[in-house]
Amino acid sequence: MENYAPKKGTFTFTMIKPGEENQDYIGEILTMIHDAGFRIQAMKMVRLRTKQAEMFYRHLSDQPFFQDVVNYMTSGPVVAAVLEKDNAVADYRKLIGATDPTKAEDGTIRKRFARSTDRNVVHGSDSDDNAAEEATFFFSMGERYNNEGHCFFGWGN
Ligand code: IDP
Fold it and tell me: Nucleoside diphosphate kinase-like domain location, by residue (predicted)?
């Protein structure tokens, strides 16, 4: 297999969070993502197990709301996707808006669809290294390499 790793800054990782209301918005959110110039490199709908959610959000493990986040993120399926674009991490954080949707700018996904910080509709990686880690958390090697051994995202294995 060709030993090729994508350049930093070319992709980010996102999740559309669980919940009836968010399910209704999936199409519109994907349209906003597309219209902002992102290309979907990989996508799937998957329900996290408790241990997986605890691992994914371990940077929040000392926060009082940690258990609420884990409970919520395991309450139904998420749409996980890897998005390609130049300057992907920063541009996507701009597109999703502030963690607290009341502070999110007009035109952002959270401003448009989110009602509260704990149900803020979408996740977006906050660094290139986290984008690679989160993308490889969700997508196996077989989902990241094409037949020629070209790796679409993640830093190798
Ligand atoms: P981010 O999602 O904008 O990167 P983080 O600080 O990484 O924000 O927090 C991860 C998630 O934890 C948030 O998206 C939100 O769902 C939840 N969260 C963050 N702060 C709070 C809070 O003060 N109360 C409840 N939930 C929170």
Answer: 9-146
Q: Strand 11-16 vs strand 122-124: parallel, antiparallel, or unpaired?
A: antiparallel
Model pLDDT, residue 157: 57
Q: For residue 98, report the distance from its CA to the centre of ligand 1, in Å.
A: 10
- Could you tell me the distance, in angstroms and rounded to a whole number, from the CA of residue 99 to the centre of ligand 1? 6
Using one digit for the tens of pLDDT, what is the confidence trace for 134-143? Answer: 999 999 988 9
pTM (predicted TM-score):
0.94
Q: Is the ipTM of this complex over 0.90?
A: yes
Domains of the chain: residue spans and CATH: 11-144 (3.30.70.141)
Residue-wise burial string across 90-99, b where 16 or more C-beta atoms lie within 10 A, e elsewhere: bbbbebbbbe
Q: What is the pLDDT of residues 105-135, one digit of tens each?
A: 999 999 999 999 999 999 999 999 999 999 9
Q: Which long-range contacts (CB under 8 A, 24 or more apart) does 4-9 make?
A: 4/149, 4/150, 4/151, 5/151, 5/154, 5/155, 5/156, 6/151, 6/152, 6/153, 6/154, 6/155, 8/128, 9/86, 9/87, 9/88, 9/89, 9/128
Q: Is 123 a catalytic residue?
A: yes
